Amino acid sequence: MSVHALPRIAIYGAGSVGGYLAARLHEHARITCIGRRRVIDAWRIHGGLDWSDLRGGHEHVATRDVELQVDPFAAAKAHLVLVTVKSAATETVAQELAGIIAPGVPVVSFQNGLHNAAILRDALPGHPVLAGMVPFNVLQRIPGDFHQGSGGELMVEAHDSLAAFFPVFEASGLPLMARPDMPAVLAAKLLLNLNNAINALANVPLKDELSQRDWRRCLALAQREALAVFAAAQVQPAKLTPLRPQWLPRVLEMPDSWFRRLASRLLAIDPVARSSMWEDLERGRPTEVDAINGEVVRIAARHGVTAPVNARLVALIHEAEQARRTWSAQALLAELHGVQVPTAA
Ligand SMILES: NC(=O)C1=CN([C@@H]2O[C@H](COP(=O)(O)OP(=O)(O)OC[C@H]3O[C@@H](n4cnc5c(N)ncnc54)[C@H](OP(=O)(O)O)[C@@H]3O)[C@@H](O)[C@H]2O)C=CC1
Ligand SMILES: CC(C)(CO)C(=O)C(=O)O
């Protein structure tokens, strides 16, 4: 196919996910990736983008093969826009895209958190704005070099406007699964993302963290609390792993050898992979904790229940944004047990 016949995709938010998607999709679409000047300059100095994954796939994509831009107007010619900024930046991005992108162009939020698509939708009437989900981890090891450290398929809200783009993702080796139940998918992803804060506080790779029972017990406390909050709010998370979401805390608490046997897929993570929240702390950036653990606390408050474990994780991450401290699993577990209201005997 001539390059001029390829669809144009704008990726708004040049970071870990944005850079990885740009590098993976570039052969089957004309990609424009829009981001901060410091990032775009660093990617140009790197000579383009490199991607690799845990199955050994890798490629160097030269700067002539992806358009790297700092000007939001570069999104004007896109046939599809993918939003890949952190949740706190969504409102600003929505305002920046309004009036720039062509009428009717679909916009997909490839972000964690429950409300990013709704924020974009409010500012972009006349566009199908669709929730998406990135299941795998991407680490930007050095500027311009992206490593996918775990598996899973990209998901998106089913919509006719995306018909021309499914083959692009498929041909690029990143199939996109259309889902009729994205609110349930995002709720299930939020449960998994409760580990982002624990991984950031642990300051160790995800695989090491999840291999140790006391870290998993911390996650089980946060997930069990979130599941109770979801039940109070009548939110049913989708089944994204071989285990039903309701079983996750019990399996996480199992001894290491049982956990390895029962949840081998949860441990199929590259040894270098860390959560995106760890990457934020490492780079001195504000984190997304208010859109993740903070979301559990807000839903709890709306439904007359409490979420002290997730509230404590929010506070600890905000403290870490100011000054980092490395926790041991035992110290964090004691801290999280300490905030729980004892249940009547
Ligand atoms: N990284 C991962 O492994 C995964 C991440 N996710 C989710 O994907 C989303 C993106 O995460 P990630 O890629 O890690 O984020 P990054 O912080 O790596 O990338 C986002 C980039 O967008 C930039 N940005 C913010 N606002 C604007 C703007 N108005 N115009 C241009 N650029 C802007 C940011 O700059 P600045 O820092 O200056 O704000 C940053 O460079 C998040 O919701 C995250 O939770 C989901 C699954 C996995
Ligand atoms: C893939 C996962 C769950 C963990 O890396 C993530 O979403 C993140 O880091 O933000």
Automatic annotation (TrEMBL):
This is 2-dehydropantoate 2-reductase. Transmembrane segments: none annotated. GO terms for biological process: pantothenate biosynthetic process. Keywords: NADP, Oxidoreductase, Pantothenate biosynthesis. Catalyzes the NADPH-dependent reduction of ketopantoate into pantoic acid. Residues 188-320 form the Ketopantoate reductase C-terminal domain. It catalyses: (R)-pantoate + NADP(+) = 2-dehydropantoate + NADPH + H(+). It is an enzyme of class 1 (oxidoreductase). InterPro entries: 6-PGluconate_DH-like_C_sf, 6PGD_dom2, ApbA, Ketopantoate_reductase, KPA_reductase, KPR_N, NAD(P)-bd_dom_sf.
